[in-house]
Amino acid sequence: MGLELYVSVGALAICMTVAIFVIYYNKSIVKRLMALESIIDDLNHQNHKLNKAVKERNFEEDIKKIVEDKVEPLTKSLKEVKKIAAEYRGQRSSTDDAIEFESKILKLYLDGKNESEIANILGVSVKQIELILALNNPE
């Protein structure tokens, strides 16, 4: 019976050690779970605050303000640039036409035509031909 008693006491000691270890390990797990629960609660609270802020925020007004403050001035500036470019093209075109017209007059004059012949060919007045020739001094 002495050996049985030692085996029983040994088995009881092992069971108690395992039980103490399991209880201690469970306490450690419970502490970790409680810490995680606290973090999750905090995240849920932050999520609730963010959702409430998003619902309260009026994004349509924000977008409208951005359009008024940023996009409309850019659009106006682009329209002004387009208008200036069109005016420049028109001026350049009329300047190019005038230069071409004067070149035709000078060429005809250098080819031996007189002012009245040039006026008849181009369909303008003689005075206009005389003025252009005087300004360009082809002689």
What does this structure look like?
The chain is mainly α. It has 2 domains: 1-57; 74-139. Helices cover 91% and strands 0% of the residues. The protein is built from 4 helices and no strands. It has helices spanning 2-56, 59-110, 115-122, 126-136.
The radius of gyration computed from the alpha-carbon positions, rounded to a whole number of angstroms, is 50 Å
Unreliable stretches covering 5 or more consecutive residues:
none
The DSSP helix count reads 4
Shape descriptor reads rod-shaped
- The SS-based structural class is mainly alpha
Count of spatially separate domains: 2
Helix content: over 70%
The chain-level mean pLDDT equals 80
Major beta sheet, specifics? none
Intertermini distance:
149 Å
The ordered H/E elements are HHHH
**Secondary structure: number of strands:** 0
What is the percentage of strand-forming residues?
under 5%
Quick recap of the structure?
With 139 residues, this protein is an all-alpha fold. It is 91% helix and 0% strand. It has helices at residues 2-56, 59-110, 115-122, 126-136.
